[in-house]
């Protein structure tokens, strides 16, 4: 039901062709699409009904994320469902922004990571005092189009979640262009005014859980992306002729196609199972392990499938004209965001060891 | 009155099966590293027979448990969990279903009870030197001579033929048929006769569970033809439906992973981050395979027929099983070529034996290359 309506909505809007047009016109998203998605209940899928959402679980969110992945839609669905609403529904469900996000009236980006001196991730040092932010944040998805930023910073007494408006004083946003045409924001604050939404250890806990959700949803998005990339490739090898035959009649091509198909199916089953298990699990550490399992699998599959898809397309796969390249580029961005497969296998192993020792 | 196992809840049924295995299965037979001869496991078979549990999949009217697909999976899961040997089950797994589906009333009355009691022990005569992946190429001939078929030819990879009283076989009965799949029939034949000679084949691991079987004017009565003459190929294919998920079950890989983990831990292999990552890859490969397996099992439980796509389970899990045992060899370091158990703490782990055990999986039951051919045509719809 959810799957069909999400698929219809995206297909009617133009599928991956729409995503290409948006990329070509500068890499943002479509405001009308945000409204349509909101009307279909997409953003509020995991928000409780009393707060205006659908009150469904992460598995339902995964269904939508898969559909986003199939058409490589640039709208910040996973970011909104997993991170912005993930934080607000846990920390301040009655704040007006929650309803606006669910209703598609606003988009908020979430700034929680920081870059260390060598370019890699670092401990948070961005400060919030006297109603003002100082410091920087990195890897902020959707920074260019968002109306505001949810920022996790260090307050006087532990972590705080604050809201800064786009265009606020002392806020500068550097947009780093990504392979898929989107922009990743590097923010810097110097005395930027921001509204405190929550504070204390609950902020850190809510952030950790929301990051787990988002990681798992990104995995689902990669599953949908991989499935569609495989379909496109399968169609291509059935029709492309060389030596007077479709190249898909050659056994070496057939066996590679089968391996990609098996990879797709394993990823879909594994990721869906992990999301379903997360819905029934309260322990944040176990949820994080399941999210790592999902992302590790999805990235492994998406990397293999999109790269082999280029090879199976041959030279045209290397051109921008064919859609398959859009899938490779989106997979690169989604894989790097929130950790790739090697990173998540490391987390997964450590979590498993910790559970075993406990 | 027979118990209606299917009416039980899955959890109750699992408890019942687990309880029986744990209470009654002989400790010395748990996780046997080799295929036993019947004499070695006869005492266990007698218990199973008395309980009426020899043939879980057969309908109750023929002496089986009459389990539906869901209950059957649970039965096998529990069997594997406790390391219960499948015994000499070719009769139960292959011959029984064949006779139940295609046999005459006389054949059912005569053969089925003898299969259950293991009075007859069966081996499977399919493969031949020139008919492996291309099974329809088989050449062993059976010609009618009076009241008998006279059989000439050779079978190979016949598992445990040296411990079998009977063979069920695919034979060529019409060499002039226009297609090689036609002209093949299903025959049952006694092994104890001068025209049948069995030679064991020594495998890489030094075991002798595979055999060659030579037929030199061997005879079997005409009533031992199962089904119609020249229709054996279709019947053999019809028998494969359930095996196709069973052969892709996660249990072998799961057990090997457990063994790998305790071995690697004992040997300190987890101190190496490269090894840790490869272990994590293997472990996640097993977990995500189990999720896919569950999807197919659910299909069976809903009463749906499995499609050709179920072959992907076999491809994934057999290759994964191999990688796990290769990691065991790696974790063994300089002991990686040593025959017999390697001590870790107070348990012995036989890494070579696990390694060998994982090899045939990608070859038998339709090699993984054949499975890929099937998937590419039947599932992906690729031409040629």
Physical arrangement of strands within the biggest beta sheet of chain A: 1-6-7-10
Strand content of chain B: 15-25%
Major β-sheet annotation of chain A: 4 strands, mixed
Widest β-sheet, arrangement of strands of chain B: 1-4-5-8
Domain Acyl-CoA oxidase/dehydrogenase middle (chain B): 123-217
Domain Acyl-CoA dehydrogenase/oxidase C-terminal (chain B): 230-379
Keywords (chain B): FAD, Flavoprotein, Oxidoreductase
Domain Acyl-CoA dehydrogenase/oxidase N-terminal (chain B): 12-118
Tell me about this structure.
The complex is a heterodimer of chains A (358) and B (384). Chain A is built from eleven helices and twelve strands. Chain A is an alpha+beta fold and 358 residues long. Chain A has a four-stranded mixed sheet with strand order 1-6-7-10, with helices on one face. The termini of chain A are far apart. Chain B has 384 residues and is α+β, with helices and mostly antiparallel strands. Chain B has three domains: 5-87, Acyl-CoA dehydrogenase/oxidase, N-terminal domain (Butyryl-Coa Dehydrogenase, subunit A, domain 1, Orthogonal Bundle); 122-230, Beta Barrel (Butyryl-CoA Dehydrogenase, subunit A, domain 2); 243-379, Butyryl-CoA Dehydrogenase, subunit A, domain 3, CATH 1.20.140. Chain B contains twelve helices and ten strands. In chain B, α4 (90-102) packs antiparallel against α5, α8 (251-266) runs antiparallel to α9 (273-301) and α8 (251-266) packs parallel to α10 (311-332). The longest helix of chain B is centred in the C-terminal third of the chain and has 29 residues, at 273-301. The termini of chain B are far apart. The model of chain B has no long low-confidence stretch (mean pLDDT 93). Classes of the chains: A alpha+beta (358), B alpha+beta (384). The A-B interface holds A 234, 237-238, 245-246, 248-251, 253-255, 257-259, 261-262, 265-267, 269-270, 272-274, 293, 296-297, 342, 345-346, 348-349, 352 and B 276-277, 279-281, 283-285, 287-289, 291-292, 294-295, 309, 312, 315-316, 369, 372-373, 375-377, 379-384.
């Amino acid at each position: 039901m959810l799957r069909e309506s999400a698929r219809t909505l995206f297909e009617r809007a133009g599928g991956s062709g729409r995503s290409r047009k948006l990329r070509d016109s500068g890499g943002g998203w479509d405001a009308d699409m945000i409204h349509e998605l909101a009307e279909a209940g997409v953003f509020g899928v995991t928000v409780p009904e009393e707060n205006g959402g659908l009150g469904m679980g992460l598995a339902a969110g995964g269904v939508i994320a898969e559909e986003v992945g199939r058409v490589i839609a640039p709208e910040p669905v996973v970011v909104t469902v997993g991170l912005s609403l993930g934080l607000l529904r846990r920390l301040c469900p009655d704040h007006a922004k929650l309803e606006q996000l669910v209703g598609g009236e606003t988009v908020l980006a979430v700034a929680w990571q920081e870059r260390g001196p060598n370019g890699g991730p670092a401990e948070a040092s961005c400060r919030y005092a006297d109603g003002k932010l100082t410091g920087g944040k990195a890897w902020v998805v959707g920074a260019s189009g968002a109306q505001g930023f949810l920022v996790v910073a260090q307050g006087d007494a532990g972590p705080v979640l604050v809201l800064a408006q786009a265009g606020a004083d002392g806020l500068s946003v550097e947009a780093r262009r990504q392979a898929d045409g989107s922009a990743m924001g590097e923010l810097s604050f110097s005395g930027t005014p921001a509204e405190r939404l929550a504070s204390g250890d609950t902020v850190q806990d809510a952030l950790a859980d929301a990051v787990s959700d988002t990681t798992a949803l990104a995995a689902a998005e990669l599953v949908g992306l991989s499935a569609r990339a495989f379909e496109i490739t399968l169609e291509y090898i059935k029709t492309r002729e060389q030596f007077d035959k479709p190249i898909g009649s050659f056994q070496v091509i057939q066996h590679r196609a089968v391996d990609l198909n098996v990879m797709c199916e394993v990823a879909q089953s594994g990721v869906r199972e992990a999301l379903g298990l997360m819905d029934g699990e309260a322990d944040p550490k176990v949820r994080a392990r399941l999210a790592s399992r999902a992302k590790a699998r999805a990235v492994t599959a998406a990397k293999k499938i999109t790269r082999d898809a280029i090879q199976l397309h041959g030279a045209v796969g290397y051109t921008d004209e064919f859609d398959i390249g859009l899938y490779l580029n989106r997979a690169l961005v989604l894989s790097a965001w929130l950790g790739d497969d090697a990173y998540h296998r490391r987390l997964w192993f450590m979590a498993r060891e910790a559970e075993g020792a406990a | 009155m027979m118990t209606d196992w299917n009416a039980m809840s899955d959890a109750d049924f699992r408890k019942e099966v687990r309880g029986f295995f744990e209470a009654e299965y002989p400790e010395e037979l748990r996780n046997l590293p080799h295929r036993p001869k019947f004499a070695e496991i006869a005492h266990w078979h007698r218990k199973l027979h008395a309980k009426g549990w020899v043939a879980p999949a057969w309908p109750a009217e023929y002496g089986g448990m009459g389990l539906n697909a869901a209950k059957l999976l649970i039965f096998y899961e529990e069997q594997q969990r406790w390391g219960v040997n499948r015994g000499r089950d070719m009769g139960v797994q292959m011959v029984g279903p064949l006779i139940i589906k295609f046999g005459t009333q006389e054949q059912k009355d005569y053969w089925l009870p003898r299969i259950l009691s293991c009075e007859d022990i069966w081996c499977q005569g399919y493969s031949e030197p020139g008919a492996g992946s291309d099974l329809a190429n088989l050449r062993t001939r059976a010609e009618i001579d009076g009241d008998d078929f006279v059989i000439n030819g050779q079978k190979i990879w016949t598992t445990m033929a040296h411990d079998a009283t009977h063979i069920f076989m695919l034979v060529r009965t019409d060499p002039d048929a226009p297609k090689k799949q036609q002209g093949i029939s299903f025959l049952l034949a006694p092994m104890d006769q001068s025209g049948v000679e069995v030679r064991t084949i020594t495998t890489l691991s030094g075991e002798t569970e595979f055999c060659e079987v030579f037929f030199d004017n061997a005879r079997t009565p005409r009533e031992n033809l199962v089904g119609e003459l020249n229709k054996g190929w279709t019947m053999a294919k019809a028998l494969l439906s359930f095996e196709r998920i069973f052969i892709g079950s996660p249990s072998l890989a799961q057990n090997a992973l457990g063994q790998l983990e305790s071995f690697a831990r004992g040997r300190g292999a987890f101190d190496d981050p490269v090894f840790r990552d490869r272990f994590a890859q293997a472990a996640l490969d097993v977990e995500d395979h189990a999720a896919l397996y569950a999807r197919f099992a659910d299909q069976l439980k809903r009463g749906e027929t499995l499609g050709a796509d179920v072959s992907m389970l076999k491809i994934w899990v057999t290759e994964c099983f191999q990688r796990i045992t290769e990691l065991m060899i790696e974790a063994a370091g300089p002991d990686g070529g040593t025959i017999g158990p390697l001590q870790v703490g107070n348990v012995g782990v036989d890494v070579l034996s696990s390694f060998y055990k994982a090899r045939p999986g990608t070859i038998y039951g339709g090699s993984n290359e054949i499975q890929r051919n099937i998937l590419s045509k039947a599932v992906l719809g690729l031409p040629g």
